[in-house]
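Question: I have long wanted to understand how a fold can be written as tokens. Here is the record:
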Amino acid sequence: MNKRNVLLAAPILLLFFLLAWFLWPESEEDKKIKALKTQALRAAQAANPASGEYRQFAADSKSLFTEENMYTYAQLIEMARTGRISLIAELWKLRQKCDSRGATEPTKEQASEAAPAPKMNAEECNLRIEAFIREQYPAPDNEKLLKLFRDYLRYEDTMRRFILPENLSVEERQQQIKKKRREIFSESDAQLVFGYEEARTDTQEALAEFIKSSAALPANERVQKYFDLRKKSLGDYNAAYTESEPAYTRYETELMLRGDEMQRKNSAAVETQQMREKYFGRDAARRMAQVDKEVQQERQRIEAYEAAAQKFNQQNASLSEVERKTKLSELRVSLLGKDEAEAYERRMQYEEYLRTNNLK
């Protein structure tokens, strides 16, 4: 091909490739990417208070997140300060609303050239939460909450990339995380966001050490010192922790603290019943004692069966496997009853499954 022909063919080839580029159908993946880019651009424009779209974006965002009887700023901060709510949990409640709502509605032109709008992405959700905070709370409170929110976004991004050394103890890991938090948040803000979680962790460590070192104390003194230490360690969070603590958890804690002395005095049955009456009332304590009795009777029946089964196997080693299983089944029913015998057999099959698969 001579130079003249090449020059004539070049524009035709260029035109062909341009037509192919524009006319080639988009793949579904291309459409999704295009829709996501369009969504992010529109959301960013709408979230800018200087843009003409902002008022509608702000109104839509407030409608998305607003509920009846929402906390005021003062209520929100006070409840976070005392551990009655978690600001992180409140944020995730808002984010869940993003999951239930699609992305910003496209214009007619955008709808005609894009795939169906994808679910709202994280960037738009965060922009909508910012708009909601700005609209829901008056200045300067809204700016304080916005700072907390933006700092938390920075913290999330930091922790995604933060790798802790593998050889750290649990306590050392916790200290590293606390330090990293305070590189982003002020101390007061870190207390608002993470204070209750950190106080509970520190308290659990202090109480575990107390339990190990206090076994020789008189039971009444041990119980009193345990709850005094917990109250002091939790500080402003103690009331919220105590209010949410189930009665059965507190009962089990006191039972554990008194256990060493009850064992020394051989007084477990009497003192356990007294504590049950203290925490649950006399009628409930009586029902719990009846359950204890039934459980003990069941345990005795099982022990009697297992002893009889062992003796039977020793005396009937020549029986076939089928005959042995049949006789043992009859023995179980006679000693345990039909329902209890079937439950025992299911439990033995499950334990055999765990052993066979190295799960126990």
Summary: Residues 27-161 form one domain. The two ends are 80 Å apart (CA to CA).
